[in-house]
Input
Amino acid sequence: MTSYPHVRLRRTRTTAWSRALHREVEVTPADLIWPLFVTEGHDLEVPVASLPGVSRWSVDRIAAQARAAVAAGIPAIALFPNTQPDRRSHDGGEALNPDNLMCRAIRAIKDACGHDIGVLTDVALDPYTSHGQDGLIDDAGYVINDETVEVLVGQSLNQAAAGADIIAPSDMMDGRVAAIRAALEEAGHINVQIMAYAAKYASAFYGPFRDAVGSGGLLKGDKKTYQMDPANAEEALREVELDLAEGADSVMVKPGLPYLDIAYRVKQAFGVPVFAYQVSGEYAMIEAAVAAGAADRDKMVLETLIAFKRAGCSGVLSYHALHAARLLGA
Ligand code: PBG
Output
């Protein structure tokens, strides 16, 4: 076998042109999905304290955000509503209201941007329930699967009717992808995609997001009876296999960097489009390091994004998406 000194792996790293030539993967704005929070009111930008640099936008200002994403080359945004407290209830019925905050935001973006950008909508009841769980609960507080799936189907049809392009169930109920797919077909929404949050873990990294949608203070306990145990990887492959069999067009792994092994294994095992969600706690960690003078934001953001591509992801949901897209486009 040829070895040193004939083999010198540093040889191809000597110059920038050579490093560019030998680079195995790249990240472009087209790899990014930008999550956006929407709030009631007019002409509002409300900063999220635990997510410095991230705001909630009123519906009349959300289209401008989407246009900025289009201009930066971002192909899709993900929408999350901060439902006003008096519209939250035990059964999360506001999720089915065709004029809810989410539907108004979808319509505002689609009216402004049409096919220039894809709108991904989260399906789960936590922005609408008075208890902050993702589904209906029984007297003991247990999230009941099959009854919840029925509501999620209604929520999906509501979002699709408002113009959603990608339905993204994040609730981790069993059987919801098949039920949602069947209902979308039946209603004629044959080209509305499903990106399943297939391997979503019961994680400590979601805290700032729960502040942003206003469910954090309401939530008692945890989500461990439906979200996955961070110790499990084999089970993630079963989750993905089932969601694909039920008709998911793509699958998501969440959180992102701490679960890169899962994204890699899913890609290796199934060869399907895999997305990773670099979640709110991951964003907050980077921003905290930057604020502490311990990190260079631009370099750290781009390094984390390339890690997802190297692991085999088709794309990444990231609160840094607009910033990164502008860096990459420059
Ligand atoms: C709702 C949902 C959550 C996130 C996305 N959709 C929170 C949760 O499951 O509690 C987290 C996103 C983030 O932390 O950035 N089901």
User: Anything to note?
Assistant: The radius of gyration is 20 Å. Residues 27-252 form a domain with the TIM Barrel fold (CATH 3.20.20.70). The mean pLDDT is 97.
